[in-house]
Amino acid sequence: MCIDHNHMQILEILGQVTHLNACRAKQMFGKYELKPGHAGILFILDKEGELSQRELSEKMKLSPPTITSALQKMEKLGFIRRKQDPYDQRVLRLCVTEKGKSCIEQICRVGKEMEELVFQGISTEESLLLKRLLMQVRDNLMEGQDPSILRPPL
Predict the structure, then answer these.
(1) Residue 106 falls within a domain, yes or no?
(2) Domain that holds residue 112
(3) Which of 28, 49, 52, 66 has the fewest Cβ atoms surrounding its Cβ within 10 A?
(4) Residue 105 is inside which H or E element, if any?
(5) From CA 53, how far away is CA 69, in angstroms rounded?
(6) Strand partners for 82
(7) What is the DSSP annotation of 55-75?
(8) Each residue of 7-44: pLDDT tens digit?
(9) CATH code for the domain in which residue 135 is found
(10) Number of domains comprising the chain
(11) What 3-state DSSP class applies to 132?
(12) Quick one: which of 17, 40, 37, 11 has its CA closest to 26?
């Protein structure tokens, strides 16, 4: 099948790029038994330290039930663990395990590989222009919207 690239709509191309980026990220993160959205959880916990599920959900701008299944999977796989808060026995704190910390290095590597792949053959000036244009498109689409819609699915 031959595709006439001169007649493709910009939104069609943007949709394809978004889909391909998600597929590639899922494939690359899959090597580490993670979904792309789990990387954000690991980064926040690594940076902020131990957090309750409510605190984590507030930082990620997601409701606690939204991240519950991701946390359960990550705990089962050994990336995070829960421990009781020493000051409030009703609260469980989430923290990154050693396996999770070593995975953060791999996630950074995947991010770098993704960026190299995406911007292959594109100059620094072109990538900066693309970034500026995409941020303007994003801002246009965000007008009047709840910022929490920017969070990727877990």
Answers:
(1) yes
(2) 28-141
(3) 49
(4) helix 98-118
(5) 12
(6) 94
(7) HHHHHHT--HHHHHHHHHHHH
(8) 679 889 999 999 998 899 888 888 888 887 788 899 89
(9) 1.10.10.10
(10) 1
(11) helix
(12) 37
Q: Which residues pair with residue 83 across a beta bridge?
A: 93
Q: Is the dihedral of CA 83, 86, 88, 94 positive or negative?
A: negative
Task: Report the alpha-carbon distance of residue 27 to residue 14 in Å, rounded.
Answer: 20
**Range scoring the smallest mean pLDDT among 79-88, 123-132, 144-153:** 144-153
> Is the CB of residue 64 less than 8 Å from the CB of residue 53?
yes
pLDDT in tens, 70-113: 999 999 999 999 999 899 989 999 999 999 998 888 888 888 99
The encoded tokens of residue 36 equal: 């792309």
Contacts of 132 (CB under 8 A, 6+ apart): none
